[in-house]
């Protein structure tokens, strides 16, 4: 079980797949919005070590049902909410490799996750490049010490503040509408966790009269490793300090009507440190207006 004490899920995907906000560099227009209910899950039996190698671990899993919302208060100011209203975290029995007996029985917890509230401001809203700034507050609303040993979590127990800059542009590929977006951010973390640099790039193309959109995202986290590890709980946790990754995440979305659509995506870490090495998945239903 010692190898699992430093594990972390790609909580970044749930936080900001969601880190590339639905609008990218574009704020919502006044009265406009985007609302999405989704199910995100990850089941992992291996992880990247602190040296980048892949090692096996007891199977962990997390399932999160969430609401993600953007609403335009003005043409420049957009409010953003990520609310994981149900999250289940579990680990399987740890078995003896020789006798097959249960060494550590599996456990599970159910609770809400960490809530994110943000404000996006459109710095440049006209012209070929849309530029916006986002200030996000990560609230420690999840359970950071669940289970009999305090080693199951749906949150990390720290209040963080993320400042992010997005730059996006739209263009044509033949007769198809397309866009590209790039972002970078600094995440200030508390309670002994190290601060982080976050970055990413994405591009999407619309098909079938803009009803079908295919998107590919490449994003990552780089830890500044400036925290105090003595303040961070050393438990069998799926949230860890100093975790890093570079992840690719394709997504397909389809408009069933002019406003209602469905989406599906997955995320896979190309490289990482102190992070699960398995693929995560997400399906959702969204409304935009």
Describe the structure.
The structure is a single chain. By secondary structure, the chain is mainly β. The chain has one helix spanning about 10-15; strands spanning about 35-50, 55-70, 75-90, 95, 100-105, 105-110, 115-125, 130-140, 160-175, 175-190, 195-205, 210-225, 245-255, 260-275, 275, 280-289. It has one helix and 16 strands. It has a twelve-stranded antiparallel beta barrel with strand order 1-2-3-7-8-9-10-11-12-13-14-16. Strands 4-5 form a two-stranded antiparallel sheet. The longest helix is centred in the N-terminal third of the chain and has 6 residues, at about 10-15. The radius of gyration is 19 Å and the shape is globular.
Unreliable sequence segments: 1-21
Fraction in beta strands: over 45%
The number of E-state strands comes to 16
Shape: globular
Summing up helix and strand content along with how strands pair, one would put the structural category as mainly beta
State the distance separating the first and last CA atoms: 48 Å
């Amino acid at each position: 079980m010692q190898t699992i004490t430093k594990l972390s899920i790609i909580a970044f995907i749930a936080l900001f797949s969601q880190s590339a906000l639905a609008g990218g560099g574009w704020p919502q227009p006044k009265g406009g919005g985007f609302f999405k209910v989704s199910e995100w899950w990850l089941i992992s039996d291996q992880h990247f070590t602190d040296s980048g190698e892949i090692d096996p671990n007891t199977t962990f899993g997390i399932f999160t049902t969430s609401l993600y919302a953007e609403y335009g208060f003005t043409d420049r100011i957009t409010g953003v909410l990520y609310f994981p209203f149900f999250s289940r975290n579990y680990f399987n029995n740890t078995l003896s490799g020789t006798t097959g007996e249960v060494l550590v029985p599996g456990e599970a917890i159910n609770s809400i996750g960490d809530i994110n509230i943000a404000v996006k401001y459109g710095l440049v809203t006209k012209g070929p490049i849309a530029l916006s700034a986002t200030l996000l507050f990560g609230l420690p609303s999840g359970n950071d010490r669940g289970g009999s040993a305090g080693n199951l979590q749906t949150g990390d127990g720290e209040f963080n503040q993320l400042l992010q800059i997005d730059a996006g542009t739209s263009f044509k590929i033949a007769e198809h509408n397309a866009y590209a977006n790039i972002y970078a951010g600094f995440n200030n973390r508390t309670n002994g966790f190290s601060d982080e640099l976050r970055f990413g790039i994405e591009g999407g193309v619309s098909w079938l009269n803009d009803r079908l959109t295919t998107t590919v995202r490449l994003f990552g986290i780089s830890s500044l490793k400036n925290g105090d590890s003595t303040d961070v709980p050393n438990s069998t946790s799926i949230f860890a300090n100093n975790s890093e990754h570079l992840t690719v995440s394709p997504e397909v979305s389809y408009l069933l009507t002019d406003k209602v659509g469905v989406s599906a995506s997955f995320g896979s870490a190309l490289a990482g440190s102190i992070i699960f090495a398995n693929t995560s998945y997400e399906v959702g239903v969204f409304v935009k207006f």
